[in-house]
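Q: Could you predict the 3D structure of ATP synthase epsilon chain?
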Amino acid sequence: MSLTLRVLAPDKSVFDDTVEEVILPSTTGLLGILPGHISMVTAIDIGVLKLRSSNGNWDSIALMGGFAEVESDDVTVLVNAAELGKSIDKATAEKEFEQAKAALNKLEDQAGNSADKLKAKESLNKARARSQAVGE
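A: Sure. Here are the predicted structure tokens for ATP synthase epsilon chain:
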């Protein structure tokens, strides 16, 4: 048995194929999906989706938040943005992660606008997801 996984962003279909297993970064923690999983809808956090293909290899997709629906061995993930781990340049992702971390540290040392700090934390989370997806 297998699952049909679709990862859709507003501007493109990121992934559409059959897989053996999916691990989703839900807002309440990692969520493993295998064939026969109960139907559900869950919120997706910024993080890394892991999928095991029929050949047993694991691949990663960086997700930038959204929702996932599981129904009858179909997993549909609707996200704000997504990127296949194998298409991310490792050096660029690591550089962006370090820059985001430095920007957040600079803001946390200052008293001031919490909206800027929230944006910096979100940027750090996105950069971390991209960096982790490429390293998987």
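Q: Anything worth pointing out?
A: The helical segments are 90-108, 114-135.
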